[in-house]
Amino acid sequence: MNLKLRLVDDAAKVHTYSSTIIAAALGAVSVASPFIEAAWTGMPDEVKSLLPDSWRLAIAIAVGCLAIIAARYTTTAPKTTTATEAADGDASTAAK
């Protein structure tokens, strides 16, 4: 197996890839996990009892899956305009 490391073709736009955004979000969560844990342990027991123990993992998995689905079906690419939209924009600018 001969692997060569190289940059992606459009490395300048890698921050717009959904996989990069997900990896950055997961990295931020892992960095913040001690603070999240401290906040959870600092909560009163009455508040903790509102959420059953068996639901914690299910909620975490659901949030993770929804984040992946949202990243898959969204984009950060700029919106392209058609010729008619561009002409309408020019007309509205001229009217002002």
Write the layout of secondary structure elements.
Elements: H1 18-42, H2 45-48, H3 53-72, H4 83-95
Helix pairs in contact: 1-3
Primary descriptors:
96 residues, mainly alpha, 4 helices, elongated
* % residues in beta strands: under 5%
Kindly state the mean pLDDT as a whole number?
A: 76
Structural class: mainly alpha
Distance between the termini: 64 Å
Shape by Cα distribution? elongated
| H-E string | HHHH
Q: Give the % helix.
A: 55-70%
Which radius of gyration do the C-alpha atoms yield? 22 Å
Number of helices: 4
Number of strands: 0
What does this structure look like?
InterPro entries: DUF7940. It comes from Caballeronia fortuita. This is Holin. The chain crosses the membrane at residues 21-43, 55-73. This protein is mainly α. The chain has a domain at 16-78. It has helices spanning 18-42, 45-48, 53-72, 83-95. Helix 1 packs antiparallel against helix 3 (53-72). The longest helix is centred in the first third of the chain and has 25 residues, at 18-42. The model has no long low-confidence stretch (mean pLDDT 76).
Entry summary:
The chain has helices at residues 18-42, 45-48, 53-72, 83-95.
